[in-house]
Write a structure and sequence with these properties.
Strands 5, 6, 7, 8, 9, 13, 14, 15 and 16 form a 9-stranded mixed β-sheet that branches. A 4-stranded antiparallel β-sheet has the order 1-4-2-3, with no helix packed on it. The chain has a 3-stranded antiparallel β-sheet with strand order 11-10-12, with helices on one face. It starts with a strand and ends with a helix. The mean pLDDT is about 90. The chain is built from 6 helices and 16 strands. It is α+β, with helices and mostly antiparallel strands. It has 3 domains: about 70 residues, RNA-binding S4 domain (Structural Genomics Hypothetical 15.5 Kd Protein In mrcA-pckA Intergenic Region, Chain A); about 90 residues, 2-Layer Sandwich (Pseudouridine synthase), CATH 3.30.2350.10; about 110 residues, Pseudouridine synthase, CATH 3.30.2350.10. Helices cover about 20% and strands about 30% of the residues.
């Protein structure tokens, strides 16, 4: 059983709990959107797994917006993670935390359709089960996620105390997260800030969009490192950490990520096998020592190869 707490968006005021909770859960677990149907959420409520203010709520209850909703999610027994001997690029490790450089194409945790070959499967083998249990048996140790086709740094909690303290930093937006991307076009300014709320798309529940409806504030800073033909190589800093934030924000200003099959142009750059996005810098306060630690991961081969190809094309 996984117990999670979520803050109901202010836009939830006056709306039915089951409808709001369906949107909140699909936002929290985008890889499992198909699981959180309205009927599934109603069953959770009817079986007494959803609370607010310490009381079990009813599916017809109306939310006031801003309150904390606690949900007990039964673990998916068929998708319980199991150890697999998969090589990991470990940047740092001690008894509390592990920082790993995730390769492009690796899913972070098991989900319907991806029961094995994930980062969690590899972590269970490497750590011999010594991972925090706060997120249940399917996501042990997972404090935050990056998309399957995004490469780069993740911090993993090896015990519950470390998990709680890292989660507090993420919630307070004090974790340093810098990404590198190649986007279409040349941006009008060498640096800028995108401050635009993000919520689930009203047209496609698997996608997110810049919207004021049932959304959360999202802020992304960017700076241009290099302009190459009709593309730009940029650095991005997240002030918030919303699902698909960089991909949605850059697409919203007309500069989607190269290779992005969801938010990019219809004619996608298929040889990239997904968005050209790398989590290259990660910094946080160590949960036990109180020391600020920062880690970097070089651009992977797929990324540098694409950059070099663009440069060769530009230079004739």
């Amino acid at each position: 059983m996984t117990r999670i707490e979520m803050s109901a968006p202010e836009q939830s005021s006056g709306k039915r709990a089951d409808a709001c909770l369906t949107a909140m859960l699909t936002d929290e677990y985008p890889d499992e959107a198909a699981r959180f149907t309205r009927s599934y959420v109603q069953k959770l409520i009817e079986e007494g797994h959803v609370f607010s203010g310490g009381k079990v709520i009813k599916k017809s209850d109306r939310l006031s917006g801003g309150e904390t909703v606690t949900v007990e999610l039964p673990d998916l027994e068929t998708d319980d993670a199991f150890p697999e001997d998969i090589p990991l690029d470990i940047v740092y490790e001690d008894s509390d935390v592990l920082v790993v450089n995730k390769p492009k194409g690796m899913v972070v945790h098991p989900a319907p359709g991806n029961p094995s070959g994930t980062l969690v499967n590899a972590l269970l083998w490497h750590c011999k089960g010594e991972l925090s249990g706060i997120n249940g048996t399917v996501r042990p140790g997972i404090v935050h996620r990056i998309d399957k086709d995004t490469s780069g740094l993740l911090v993993v909690a090896k015990n519950d105390n470390a998990h709680l303290k890292l989660s507090e930093q993420i919630a307070a937006h004090t974790v340093t997260r810098r990404y590198y991307a190649v986007v279409y076009g040349r941006l009008p300014d060498s640096s800028g800030i995108i401050d635009a709320a993000i919520g689930r798309s009203s047209k496609d529940r698997k996608k997110f969009a810049v919207t004021e409806k049932n959304s959360k504030n999202a802020v992304t800073e960017y700076s241009v490192l290099e302009e190459i033909g009709n593309f730009s190589f940029i650095e991005l800093k997240l002030r918030t950490g919303r699902t698909h934030q960089i991909r949605v924000h850059m697409s919203s200003i007309g500069h989607p990520l190269a290779g992005d099959p969801v938010y990019g142009p219809q004619k996608v750059i298929r040889e990239l096998n997904g968005q050209c996005l790398h989590a290259g810098c990660l910094g946080f306060i160590h949960p036990s020592t109180g020391e600020y630690m920062e880690f970097r991961a070089d651009l992977p081969d797929y990324f540098t190869s694409f950059l070099n190809r663009l440069r060769r094309t530009q230079n004739g």
